[in-house]
Amino acid sequence: MTKTLRFGCSALSLAALGLVACGGEDGDYPDQDITFVVPFGTGGANDQIARAFAQELEAELDVNVNVENREGGGATIGTSHVVNSEPDGYTIGLAAAAALAQQPLTNDDLPYSSPEDYHVVGKIAEMPGVVAVPSDSEFDDLDAFITHAQDNPGELQASQAGNGTTQDLLIRELARLADTEIQSIPLAGGGQEATLAAVSGRVDATFGFAPAITSFVESEDLRVIGVVADEQYEAFPDAQLSADIGYDTPLRAVYYIILPNDAPEEVREQLESATASIVDSEAMAEFSNESGFVMEHKDHAAAVDEILEYTELYEEFNANFDIDE
Known about the structure:
Elements: H1 11-17, E1 34-38, H2 45-61, E2 65-69, H3 76-84, E3 91-96, H4 97-106, E4 119-127, E5 129-134, H5 142-151, E6 157-160, H6 166-177, E7 183-186, H7 190-199, E8 205-208, H8 210-218, E9 222-228, E10 240-241, E11 253-259, H9 265-279, H10 282-291, E12 294-298, H11 300-320
Parallel strand pairs: 1-2, 1-3, 6-7, 6-8, 9-10
Antiparallel strand pairs: 3-11, 4-11, 4-12, 5-8, 5-9
């Protein structure tokens, strides 16, 4: 998207008055529209949180925030666009932990390899993975599902959004922790098709996230039997926690706001302050209750530390699993 500058005075009046500028570098940030790049397609859960955040950012900064979807490449196309943009604060982006921490481990062609190659404004949210089964499934909880897998290695099939996705890794990691085998079935249509595969009974379960599953739970087509987490998840408070039956992993979907490197200090400070306010706002709390995203703010330093921790975690997964299987 081409960025359009908005000037408050004409070239003629500038010349007549001998003024240098009415905005831009000599003005206060921000004095023009901001482009907010989302590395996912329109309409999905990730797009929803981006647009909710963008709406609040408009109010915080009192400028237009235009959402621009640049999907593809495991979220690296949009993320790379932000990293390569002018560091003026007028192009920012939503970024997922998988794109920031996992993709650089397997893709040498990216313009970033670590948080040193971009500026992390802060963390805004995360979501634990959930395990859902068809409504008529024999499995009442995650323990029963895992026990069956242990007694019948390789028999159970669980759908997911694609090889190497967080959902795929959750299946593989739970199977590893339980010392068994669960078939991880990638679906070309991503998370939506993976969910529908469980609804139709083509697979025994699906591993996904609340935004894609909630409506099917409400319609009683699916039941959530487990949450891959160590604390109660408000979206499905009665679901069994994996940690409670001995299978704990920190892996989850995590989201950050990023900027190109070398953005001016004023820009970084404004966006970091705005991000903290937005994450703690009533509007985002309401969005969280409706969507299943867990709003959690971490400042620049803490967010960088978390991305580095996820990099180490993905390195372990890459060593344990052959993602091309």
